[in-house]
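wait is this the right file?? whatever heres the structure
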């Protein structure tokens, strides 16, 4: 399957039937937790939206196929969920993101949704598309009760969800890394329970040891609470001591519960764009070359959606040695260069569907 990692950029990783079974366990564990919050009958009497990647497969190599993890999982839903799965395989198989999103909006606008699942930024974009068809979302899905989310921090998005839907949904956080389904929120108080029965062997490297020739490698038996670790997986897909790139901190021991504290490397991933430091630096170099500018210092940070800016985007704060003649042209150069380097960013920026154009703030 293909994945856009925040540590090493786009990559392809192996997947096996055993790995699919592992990911399926994560989904099955999340659904009963949702049912426990709102009632199993309530969930099963309507549709469940899983907004993920494309379900189509592409050839790779002589005998292989490649696709998005979430799309691959949707193709293998158990019989009891297939009839309730929204937007349906006919829509989720559309390769173009914007076309698929528009078709999904038309589909769900007329459905009785009971549960939604996906990356928060993607779901907000879908809400905008549905609003064009049915302006008032507050009474569009009266039986919608549960959100299963993961991929990015939800806290910055919660006010927008509450505003758009007119109420607060029950929420369950999941940690479905492409390399393996790691954890599920099982307690209302928060924190993700590390799942030890998914066929994954876990190791945890203290963050201060990253890059050392012989880093310390702890198992679940000897991790310490309130200490940051890089998570390392050996999986049924054939990955061996694979550094996922996330850093975690354990908050409880029995059962082991954790929070995701960041990444081994710096990144910007507020909207699922998965932009890593190398890509940011290369985009800045390209923009300077195209505009005859020289930079002293710079940083880039997300600008989260708000009532006045429903998409959000990136703010670049730049100190120039030699400023460009046209700051807006410089911003367009940054945008173009980053889109050429990062497929996820390019998808989010196409037609302003997931992010607005970057802003350059000169200091």
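ok assuming it is, sequence goes like this
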């Amino acid at each position: 399957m293909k994945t856009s990692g925040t540590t090493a950029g786009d990559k392809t990783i192996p997947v096996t039937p055993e790995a699919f079974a592992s990911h399926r366990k994560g989904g099955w564990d999340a659904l009963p937790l949702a049912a426990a919050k709102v009632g199993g009958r309530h969930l099963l009497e309507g549709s469940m939206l899983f907004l993920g990647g494309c379900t189509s497969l592409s050839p790779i190599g002589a005998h292989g196929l490649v696709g998005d993890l979430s799309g691959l999982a949707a193709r293998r839903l158990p019989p009891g969920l297939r009839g309730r799965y929204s937007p349906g395989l006919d829509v989720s198989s559309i390769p173009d993101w914007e076309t698929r999103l528009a078709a999904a909006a038309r589909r769900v606008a007329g459905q009785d949704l009971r549960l939604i699942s996906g990356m928060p930024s993607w779901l907000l974009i879908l809400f905008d598309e549905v609003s064009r068809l049915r302006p008032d979302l507050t009474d569009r899905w009266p039986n919608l009760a549960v959100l299963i989310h993961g991929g990015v921090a939800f806290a910055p998005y919660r006010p927008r969800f509450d505003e758009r839907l007119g109420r607060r949904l029950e929420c369950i956080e999941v940690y479905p890394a492409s390399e393996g389904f790691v954890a599920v929120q099982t307690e209302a108080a928060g924190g993700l329970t590390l799942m030890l029965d998914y066929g994954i062997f876990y190791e945890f490297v203290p963050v201060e040891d990253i890059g050392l020739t012989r880093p310390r490698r702890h198992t679940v038996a000897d991790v310490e609470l309130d200490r940051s670790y890089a998570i390392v997986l050996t999986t049924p897909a054939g990955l061996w001591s694979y550094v996922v790139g996330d850093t975690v901190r354990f908050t409880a021991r029995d059962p082991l519960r954790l929070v995701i504290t960041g990444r081994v490397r710096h990144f910007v991933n507020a909207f699922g764009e998965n932009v890593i430091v190398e890509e940011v630096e290369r985009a800045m170099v390209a923009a300077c070359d195209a505009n005859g500018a020289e930079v002293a210092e710079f940083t880039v940070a997300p600008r989260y959606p708000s009532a006045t800016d429903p998409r959000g985007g990136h703010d670049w704060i730049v100190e120039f040695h030699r400023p460009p003649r046209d700051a807006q042209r410089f911003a367009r150069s940054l945008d173009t260069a980053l889109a050429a380097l990062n497929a996820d960013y390019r998808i989010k920026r196409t037609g302003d569907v997931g992010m607005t154009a970057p802003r350059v703030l000169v200091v």
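The chain has three domains: 2-176, 192-263, 267-362. so i think its the right one actually
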